[in-house]
Amino acid sequence: MRHRLRALVAALFALPLALAIAPSAHAADPTTMTNGFYVDPDSSAKRWVAANSGDGRTPAINASIANTPTARWFGSWSGTIGTATGAYVGAADSGDKLPILVAYNIYNRDYCGGHSAGGAASPSAYATWIAQFTGGIANRPAVVILEPDSLGDYGCMTQAQIDEREGMLTGALAQFNRQAPNTWVYLDAGNPGWADPATMARRLHEAGLRQAHGFSLNVSNYFTTAENTAYGNAVNSELNARYGYTRPFVVDTSRNGNGSNGQWCNPSGRRIGAPTQLGGGAEMLLWIKVPGESDGNCGVGAGSSAGQFLPEAAYKMIYGY
After folding, report:
1. I want to staple 228 with a disulfide (CB 3.0 to 4.6 A). Which of 52, 111, 217, 280 is the partner?
2. Which family would the database say this protein is a member of (predicted)?
3. For residue range 51-62, what is the model confidence (pLDDT) as tens digits?
């Protein structure tokens, strides 16, 4: 790929200087190695559009949701995980595009909320899974959101469980540093309504944020970009004051066009937000959750399961009603 070759040539010429300053496993910038973001050809929205060409809602869903670059989530449903991530980033790489992946398989996932409960069978099983996830990406460019919600709610967890979770995340970040040098990893930091900035800064640091490229905000939630930007800046202020470093952050804008009404599980009246892009108040604005995918058996998604595509919810989200 032309962008990738140009980046590699520049890196080769700069190598002696880079080594003299400070080698970094995440020195490469995957956004400069690619030409735009990857549109998942097998997203739930894409599949629905393909199967419902005669539906009156299809043109709007196709134009406004199905063709916007959106993350693909990987978990126990993904089969042999190294094969799955390798195939996905390989397809993106062949088109010179940057893929967005979500690793969502931590042991005791959604332990306190329960709507998306599951994950690996044990901490050791997770360590194996994330090592294979990372190995599948290898040296190809990618963006990874690491374990949404994992640091957001500790309310029902013992200190031993918290320590165990933070250890799993630290181990995961070490795998990315070891195996995926052209991946930007964002450790998830919940949203502005979950934990105060000082608390989240401490949790991020204790989970190994120093090893990550940055942190992610608002995954599968509805807070405005402005609210998330203010929160992310406040978290960075706490990181700087307490630990002497900061990190860039990204915001999930897929469903934040009308902001939050205080509900997180399939609330009505929400709207799609700014499309995936560089900048916009954060390092990147990303569609991490597919608009129209259910949060679980609740709200306007009553009777659905988490991740199920709801065309009527998607259609209404386009127009904000």
Report:
1. 217
2. Belongs to the glycosyl hydrolase family 6.
3. 999 999 999 999
